[in-house]
Amino acid sequence: MATPFTSLTFTVRRCEPELVAPAKPTPHECKLLSDIDDQESLRFQIPVIQFYRHNPSMQGKDPAKIIREALAKALVFYYPFAGRLREGPNRKLMVDCTGEGVLFIEADADVTLEQFGDELHPPFPCFDELLYDVPGSEGMLNCPLLLIQITRMKCGGFIFAVRLNHVMSDGAGLKQLVSAVGEMARGMVTSSIPPVWERHLLDAGDPPRVMFTHHEYDEVEGIITPPDNMVQRAFFFGPNEISSLRRLLPRHLRQCSKFELLTACLWRCRTVAINPDPDDEVRMMCIANTRSKFNPPLPSGYYGNAFVFPAAKTTARKLFRNPLGYAVELVKQAKASVTEEYVKSVSSLMVIRDKQLHFPVVRSFLISDVTSFGFGDVDYGWGKAVFGGPAKALGPISFLIQSKDKNGEVGTLVSICLPAPAMESFAKELDNILKGQPVEDVGKPIKISSAM
């Protein structure tokens, strides 16, 4: 169930970071981000990682060289990524398409893919060496919008790690970009999915109108756990675990989606782990891709942020004492609330509040399902990745990632970030649920602060 810890260490030798600019001249213009893109909640960096095996047919070919050249070609089409963010009145973000380029690092590691073990999963050993944080590069404004590191391994395989400024794209948009790099690396001269900017499609109306109550932006007071007290673990859910969870639901809910089932289970386990006061409100926010919610749907090449994160809230007492189906119903209701009008309402709220709103962190859980994005399907010439997806959980944000266990069974990997004592409680509670055991009474004394 819980993936094992690893104590693997190795040395990474890096070349000096360089800027990779578009291979051809590109328009020098200023492009506005959407009112969804530039909200405070998305002003952070998100890391994604891919692992590739040695491919005998690519013997003698350097992945760093091939990907660097392919990246330059892809940036001709995705040239805003080669620009820099600026901020205008009312904190409105825009891309100054300067063509300066994205940061690129070439590296070598004295490790083989096999040494990472039978199961690749977050947290990855020596991750800070596999995606080096170039000093001064992590800012929102006037900094490169992408940081890519290609690390060759002793076995002939390599690791592709990328850090994205989230205001530029969501997971689907990033997958579209790296897929284009893969196509260029394999010899294509244009992207199979032409990129579409059109960020105005997700802007607020004129005048802006907030038509819904957005609990995902409630202001919640509480103590936030210092980041140096956090630990990362991953949990694998195969067919057996999913079946065990479904058996806990009433018959009318057993056809719920795997996402709804897992989100409900994880939310409850995480709430037990942080041990809030029974009468405290707790929140679950789920990433909802809105591309198909529009009429007509957003263009297939749209690579901006096209999601919202509707919230479900209840008290800790109700979440603990009700059956798992209670949490599943709350998740389903949150998902069902998302419409084109809901997205416009979020955009309007951002405009009215000058982008200042941020999703609550205290006693909150935000989950993103990236299983359908296909980060593992990206081929730079060496075949599909052995693993592809977000490199770690980010505080209260967890990811559902398609993966395989050591026996080759396909399932869902979940990355979790919690304070160390809470992580032990989380794992215990999850094990109890999978065994069909009841949760403990919520009247127990608080042991750790309800930070997440």
From TrEMBL:
Cross-referenced InterPro entries: CAT-like_dom_sf, Plant_acyltransferase
Keyword Amino-acid biosynthesis part of the UniProt annotation: no
Keywords tagged on the record: Transferase
Entry's Gene Ontology molecular function annotations: transferase activity
Domain of life: Eukaryota
Homology family: Belongs to the plant acyltransferase family.
Name the UniProt record assigns to this protein: Benzyl alcohol O-benzoyltransferase
The organism of origin for this protein: Theobroma cacao (Cacao)
Lineage: Eukaryota, Viridiplantae, Streptophyta, Embryophyta, Tracheophyta
Name of the encoding gene: LOC18599665
